[in-house]
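fyi for ur records
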Amino acid sequence: MKATVLISYTDKYTGEVHWQGETVELTAARAKELTASHHVAVIEEKPKTTRRRTTAKKTAE
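which gave:
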C-alpha cells in the first residue's frame, strides 16, 4: 500500500527517516497505524483496467 508522508518520522522498525512529501510503501496494518497518528495519507490505488476496443456497427441498408 502506498502512502505520502505528511509529518516527518523515524520508522520504529527500520530506523529509517521518512521526510514530508516522500512516498512510502507500507503494509496495511502499518498504514492504519500511521494514518491514525496523521503521519501519512494513503494513496488510493485505482485498479488497472484495459481499454476495450469497440467494433464498428454495421448499418442496415
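Residues 28-36 form the longest helix (9 residues). thats all i got for now
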